[in-house]
Amino acid sequence: MVALAAPGRPHGLHASSHVPSLALARAVADFAQRPLAHQHPSWLPREWPLPLRKADRFGPAAAQVLAGPLALGGDEPARARLLQALLDGRGDPLARLVLLDRSALRLLAVWCGMAVHKPGFASERSRLAQQLDGRLGALAQPLIGTVPYRLRRAARRFDPQAVAFILKRVPDLPDLPMNLDPIRARPSSAARVMAERGYRLLCGLVQTLPPAASGTAQGDAHPRC
Q1: Residue 61's pLDDT is what?
Q2: For the chain, domain boundaries
Q3: What pLDDT was estimated at residue 208?
Q4: Structure pTM?
Q5: How far lies 163's CA from each of 124, 166, 194, 195, in Å?
Q6: By the 8 A CB rule, do 223 and 42 touch?
Q7: Got the DSSP string for the chain?
Q8: Alpha-carbon distance 31 to 83, whole Å?
Q9: Which of 144, 146, 197, 225 could bond 203 through an S-S bridge, CB–CB 3.0 to 4.6 Å?
């Protein structure tokens, strides 16, 4: 797949960026050998009937049936280009999203959703209330505002440290403003709105990849977000 060392040069002098890490190589090999483990129904074309989206419907042949939308079936040159792009440390890391398992990809989408809603996490009223939010529980809602309270509450359900991470570590994303009116109108929808927007954002990032690099934005295939 890739040379481990250039001819006539010691292995230690070879540029490490040209050699995939062992963990990455294993992930790519697993992706190539077990595409079904990475398959999600939303990868399939829209016209596929819902009953046929279940892997167990096809039995042992399911991996071959469902490998097409992942660019892992049929066209060997395309398959080789995809695997090489995933192994290339100099390539676009977004292409490696396809290597994430379903649960990890869903979790990443949720984090994307929380990140773009960072402005909504800030207290609408008092800085002191913002600092005390974690200790006040439900009493924080009238102090920091309904939207920040609901967003923070939803984030803490995913990770107890999520709010601190979003406010202190995530950079501002002014090019991705989020409309908070739906959450103001229905505060209980905060978690769902953040997650759905995160899914769409992640799918949009995948769809910006060149087809040869992503192997998943071809034809009628759709990201599993």
Answers
A1: 61
A2: 16-94+210-214, 109-205
A3: 67
A4: 0.59
A5: 15, 5, 14, 15
A6: yes
A7: ---SS-TTS-GGGS-GGGS--HHHHHHHHHHHH-HHHH--GGGS-TTS-GGGG-GGGSGGGHHHHHSGGGT-SS-HHHHHHHHHHHH-TTS-GGGGGGGS-HHHHHHHHHHHHHHHTHHHHS-SS-HHHHHHHHHHGGGGHHHH-HHHHHHHHHHHHH-TTHHHHHHHTSPP-TTS----HHHHH-GGGHHHHHHHHHHHHHHHHHHTS-HHHHSSSSTT-----
A8: 9
A9: 225
Contact criterion met (CB below 8 Å) for 126 and 157:
no
Q: pLDDT for 63-94, tens place per residue?
A: 555 555 555 555 667 667 777 777 776 666 77
Question: Angle 49-51-54 (CA atoms, 0-180°, nearest 5)?
Answer: 110
Q: What is the pLDDT of residues 145-188, one digit of tens each?
A: 788 888 999 999 989 999 989 999 999 888 999 999 999 999 99
